[in-house]
Specification:
This protein is mostly helical and 139 residues long. The chain has helices spanning 11-30, 34-55, 65-73, 80-90, 92-95, 107-110, 113-138.
Length: 139
Amino acid sequence: MLMGGGAVERSRDWLAQARGDLALARYAFSGGFYDWTVFAAQQAAEKAVKGALQSRGAEVWGHSVATLLRALAAQVPVPDELVDAALELDKGYIAARYPDVHPSGAPRELYTRTEAERALAYGERIVEFCARLVAGADA
């Protein structure tokens, strides 16, 4: 399906990738890779919101889940707690991967089980919220 400007509508593909990233986050969590859990949860949320936006005809750019959710909120009600969750997830987009973001230590050593568990829960909530929106757009 084509969108305005000749872009192809691929919201289901974005959502499928989001679910794959969420599965990776769960796998990383089970192995104690809490830094990668945080990053993969952020990626899952980002891709899910991009899918929801695209299902509504929007062109999507950027990596901030919070910014993307605010753009989505211009079209549908988005719970404030999801935006708050997105703000926390966004903090792991770079910091979970690059040592030079921190004063010392590798991200691998700096993320805790509790942080990863919280990020995973946030990612799951955002992906499911967006999945419902994409499914509704298909109806």
